Amino acid sequence: MTLQTVIADDEPLARERLKFLLSEDGEIEIVEECRSGKEVVDALKSTPIDLLFLDIQMPGGSGFEVIESLGVANMPITVFVTAHNEYAVEAFKIHALDYLVKPIERQRLQESLLRVKERVRLQEAFLARQEISSVLTILQTASGPGPYPQRLLVKNGNTDSIVWVRDIEWIEAADYYVCLHVGGKRHLLRETIKALEAKLDPNKFVRLHRSAIVNLDHVREIHRDGRSDGWVLLSTGVRVHLNRTGWQKLIAMNTV
Rounded to the nearest 5 degrees, what angle is found at the Cα of 6, between the Cα atoms of 128 and 92? Predict the structure, then answer.
């Protein structure tokens, strides 16, 4: 990543010191230096900025006045740099990421940059998830009329995956989650089996017992063990337990 960075400080020596320390980080690109609050406001309005090192006491508007002028929501990631530590509480109230006291130490700045980069990664992950959700919504809308979802969004570690409902072979309850069995893979979805059952097309998905739902398109054989129990054989060779109620559902749907 390359972070477009602005340094705002009315003291030339302070700016030079911070520039020197930041030059050691290849991911920081200083695109502008500001000497007053007005210059900061103009810079942020004219150029997309990722990171701002902002002095509190400056001519033409303090650091707090800059934020008040632009609004917290319109500020880049902000690290306050000041010779006065009494402003720290107020700085964090307006969501400053960090607060550095002059003279800035190399180690302390490196710690701050680690926090900055972690915040950027979190923001990027959040935006990516929003984009995936938007795409999924568009795809579901374009899939045609009907109340049943054609796709599900599932989380695998740090990755969100789209699972086609038609490809789900069977669904297994796992406490407050369900496990979707798809093409030899398992996907965990944070939802109860009862809630998911209510969303699925009942003409395609049948609940065979309290902990399992099968996709009828993947059922190959149905077996009875006595009058109350049995099992179904899926196209993958997996056997799924079947109780009496599940058997009756299959009969009602003319699947036997």
Answer: 70
